[in-house]
From TrEMBL:
Domain of life: Bacteria
Protein species of origin: Lipingzhangella halophila
One Pfam family, short name: Nramp
Alphabetically ordered keywords of this record: Membrane, Transmembrane, Transmembrane helix
Parts of the chain that traverse the membrane: 21-38, 50-71, 92-109, 121-143, 155-174, 194-215, 235-265, 285-310, 322-339, 345-370, 382-405
Membrane topology: Multi-pass membrane protein
GO biological process, one term: iron ion transmembrane transport
Record's keyword annotation contains Transmembrane helix: yes
Subcellular location per the Swiss-Prot or TrEMBL entry: Membrane
GO cellular component: plasma membrane
InterPro entries attached to this UniProt entry: NRAMP_fam (IPR001046)
Protein name per Swiss-Prot or TrEMBL: Mn2+/Fe2+ NRAMP family transporter
Amino acid sequence: MSERNDTRARPNLRVTGRGTLLGAMFLMATSAIGPGFITQTTEFTAQLGAAFAFAILVSILIDIAVQLNIWRVVGVAGERAQDLANKVLPGAGYLLAALIVFGGLVFNIGNIGGTALGLDALLGVDVRIGGAVSAAIAIGIFLVRRAGVAIDRIIVVLGVAMIVLTCYVAVVSDPPVGEAMRQAVLPEALDADIFFATVTIIGGTVGGYITYAGAHRLIDGGTSGPENVRTISRISVTGILITGVMRVLLFLAVLGVVTGGAAVLDSPNPPAAAFQSAAGDVGMRLFGVILWTAAISSVIGASYTSVSFVTSFSGWLERRRGWLVAGFITVSALVYVLLREPPATLLIFAGALNGLILPVGLGIMLWVAAFRGRDLLGGYRYPRWLLAIGVLAWLLTIVIGYQALSGISELWQ
């Protein structure tokens, strides 16, 4: 029976292969570009000005090093990260899955909140109704008959829409591009604020479930094994670059507003204030579209990836993946609707948790690359240069993990 099902699946994968690659690339990118991404970029830009360009450049380079290694190990092995972790150290995969699912659930509550705020800015819809409607839309996407194809196409459309709309606002705000380019290479000061901004946006781009989103989608789409190394590497880097482009555009949009004298941080919603200052009421509506798009795509990414960390443990779970994702989104939406206040503390905790997950997951993948290539990677000879930059990036993630522990301890004081 299983062989017959596999035979049926292969033609579909060949037909939709290109869509699957694009979907995996944008799934990772749009998973990173959520409400937290938009808020962090806005606030750091308002605080640091053009010097934030340096933090963005450094973070992109480190993100590439992290993602290249994780995607290559997972892709060449053709197994999800939790399964590889269990083979390295029995039980490690269950721990990694638990961390990913919990962090993804908490972040998803914030993502649902982001969709609600987006619809409020766009149409004036009550935030609880907006959150419930957006959750229903996300569930509908997963329950359609060909969910994989639908996800790939919708994620690409949402990703392109975000970039185009943000680009428009970046042009309208007329930022000092030359100054930003200069400080990206030669910042006026390298202080603790820039370091904090750098480690924060690294954790927000490749921390937690985010970096595994596209890698697991590639495996599910049939793109794995040593013969697909070049494709896996190209897609992984491109996903980071898409995220970087979006951050740069958002940075420039806010920088133009801040340079013009607008007090963005005085507003209860800094990103909305920045867009409104740049383009008036049209800017506010555009912000609503961008925020809703970013949030709904993050709901899809967080839900898909979190569930992918548990379905491989059981065939029964794998066969019911669509319903598990629907349940995951439903629980996130119910918690959001029942909370009387925005889940700020939960989001801070989830951000700190992502900082802890990053060195754990990356460390396991690097161990596989260095010592288990013969059995887990099918004899693939892992490039030493890639392993070296992976280890350097991992050392930095230890620092990010320390920052995360500090954040968690402050929450419990």
